[in-house]
């Protein structure tokens, strides 16, 4: 089985109008910039959220936090802020069950595989968004978010 994460920037995405990296806060990064559809594929199950408004920089940061929570308690839940949808995660031994409220699909995969896919997604998102907009990518807030997200590994 395989796990993949990807994103497609929304048609609503426009180049952020910042001339000065110091204007960019973590709140802006995590909630306002780089909105996207999120693709989540686990084996043959498509758990994607094609809503166009998911902050792509925040999503992998939250995934990393959830990994830590799952390791400690065996369960976790991602709550989307712009609607009432969730993704419930539960761990049974080495098997992770992924149960989104917005689709009938439920997927089960190896927990280690989910961890690897999440880590790769975090690194890819950070690198691609840094390249997409050098002002945003060069901001102190971006660097701090990058450091904290990577530290969650």
Describe the structure.
The protein is of the alpha+beta class and 153 residues long. The chain is 39% helix and 30% strand. The strands form two sheets. Strands 1, 2, 3 and 4 form a four-stranded antiparallel sheet that branches. Strand 5 (75-79) and strand 6 (86-92) form a beta hairpin. The chain starts with a strand and ends with a helix. The mean pLDDT is 85.
Low-pLDDT residue intervals, each spanning 5 or more residues: none
- Strand proportion, as a percent range, falls in 25-35%
Q: How are helices and strands ordered from N to C? A: EHEEEHEEEEHHH
Beginning-to-end CA distance, first to last residue: 22 Å
What's the number of extended β-strand segments?
8
Summarize the structure.
The protein is α+β, with helices and mostly antiparallel strands. The chain contains five helices and eight strands. It has helices at residues 26-31, 58-73, 111-132, 134-137, 140-151, and strands at residues 3-9, 35-42, 45-46, 49-55, 75-79, 86-92, 95-100, 107-110.
Annotate the secondary structure layout.
Layout: E1 3-9, H1 26-31, E2 35-42, E3 45-46, E4 49-55, H2 58-73, E5 75-79, E6 86-92, E7 95-100, E8 107-110, H3 111-132, H4 134-137, H5 140-151
Antiparallel strand pairs: 1-2, 2-3, 2-4, 5-6, 6-7, 7-8
Helix pairs in contact: 2-3, 3-5
